[in-house]
Amino acid sequence: MAPPAKKRRTRGNAAAAIAAEQAQEPMVEESKAEEPKAEEPKIEESNPVESQPVETAPEPAPEPTVEAKEEPDAAAKAQDRMARFKALQARAKKSSETNFKEATLESQRLSTNPSELTALHRRHAIASHKLLKADTEEAGEDFERKRAWDWTVDESEKWDKRMKKKGAHRDNNAFSDYHQEANKSYKRQLRNVNPDIEKYEKQKMAAIEKAAASGGLDIVETEDGELIAVDKDGSFYSTADSTSFTQNKPDKEAIDRLVKDLQRAEDVRLKKRKERMAQNGEDGDVTYINEKNKQFNQKLSRFYNKYTAEIRDSFERGTMI
């Protein structure tokens, strides 16, 4: 069987085919656009159904973790440390200010001569006294009477007694003899003695009990309930002929106090001697025992030092031994 004959395309057939294809293209596009509209489902409007609230159980609170517990403690500790630090800062600042004030006052005291300050106060008091006296006398009043208005009788008598004693002490200040000098030294030492009354009472009661136990002392009770010690043989109370005080044995504290007093007196004596020598310009060895001997040694030195210089140097070197 023979194959079919080939159709020849002519120009007319080609133009008709192109026109048919162009007419079919818009129809295909319209069909494609209608297909999605047909596929869309219709939504039916219906009344909304009221939703009933569903009760749910409350969720349990989360347990605090270890980190959450430690945070408040750390904050409290930090605040406590900060408060203590501020308190220490304030105390340090206050101490610094106090030390500065004390140092300033101390420097002022050291820069001021106490003797000059005392003399200035004394001159001021004397000037005020004289001015008040002059004003009172100018007004025709009694100065002593007016001054006594500010004092009571007891205070005035005590003041007069004190001034009298002070004047007598001033008159007796100069050296007269060694007996008076020893008496003044003894009174000065008595002013520095602080008696132990409690210890004295204990020793007194012990002595009374011992005498009562030995039979030399009777304890009698009066009608008022007061106890009186009666010395039967006259051996308890001391007299001018008694020697019982020699049996007293001081304790170690009293002995140490006596040694300290003697050492203090010796230090004062050496200090005054050194000051006296410094005023005279003598810092070398002391070769005299009193002022008269000092003058005599100065005369000897003035005349014989040039001859005895070699001998004295040899003695100092030790070559003459």
Task: Furnish the topology, listing elements before pairings.
Layout: H1 11-39, H2 66-111, H3 114-138, H4 143-148, H5 153-171, H6 178-191, H7 197-214, E1 217-221, E2 227-231, H8 252-279, H9 291-317
Could you characterize the architecture of this molecule?
Strand 1 (217-221) and strand 2 (227-231) form a beta hairpin. This protein has helices at 11-39, 66-111, 114-138, 143-148, 153-171, 178-191, 197-214, 252-279, 291-317; strands at 217-221, 227-231. A two-stranded antiparallel sheet has the order 1-2. It is extended. By secondary structure, it is mainly alpha-helical. It has 9 helices and 2 strands; from the N terminus they run H-H-H-H-H-H-H-E-E-H-H. Among the domains are: 191-248, no CATH class; 256-286; 287-321, no CATH class.
What features would you highlight for this structure?
single chain, 321 residues, mainly alpha, two-stranded antiparallel sheet, 66% helix
Overall mean pLDDT stands at 76
- Identify the strand order in the major beta sheet: 1-2
What structural class do you assign from the helix and strand content? mainly alpha
Question: Looking at the structure, what is the overall shape?
Answer: extended
Extract low-pLDDT stretches: 32-54
Beta content comes to: under 5%
Instruction: Tally the beta strands.
Output: 2
Number of helices: 9
Distance between the termini: 178 Å
Specify the helix fraction band: 55-70%
Order of helices and strands: HHHHHHHEEHH
User: C-alpha Rg, in Å?
Assistant: 61 Å
Q: How would you sum up the major sheet? A: 2 strands, antiparallel
InterPro entries: mRNA_splic_SYF2 (IPR013260)
Biased composition (Polar residues): 105-116
Subunit structure: May be part of a spliceosome complex.
Family: Belongs to the SYF2 family.
